[in-house]
Design goal:
By secondary structure, this protein is mainly beta. It has one domain: Roll (SH3 type barrels). Helix content is 13%, strand content 49%.
Length: 76
């Protein structure tokens, strides 16, 4: 199972991913790096909200704060 997750994340590098955080925020950005603890580095990151999207730039997110990672569909 860990191999499958690692493969999925490797295939998502340099693509836009959507993250749902434990505090209910949603963050979108281009995946640059990740590690075995699901710590993620994102470029061009931003909070996604209806009222006021906020640009964050390049960020590092600690894996234990992430609830869900949505990766792009693979091209067939």
């Amino acid at each position: 199972m860990p191999f499958e997750i690692s493969t999925l994340m490797n295939n998502s590098k340099d693509k836009v991913v959507l993250l749902r955080m434990k505090d209910s925020r949603t963050i979108q950005g281009r995946l640059k790096q990740f590690d075995i603890y699901m710590n993620l580095t994102l470029d061009d990151a931003e909070y996604i909200s209806d009222e006021n999207p906020e640009k964050l730039g390049t960020i590092l997110i600690r894996g234990d704060n992430i609830l869900v990672v949505s990766v792009p569909k693979e091209d067939s």
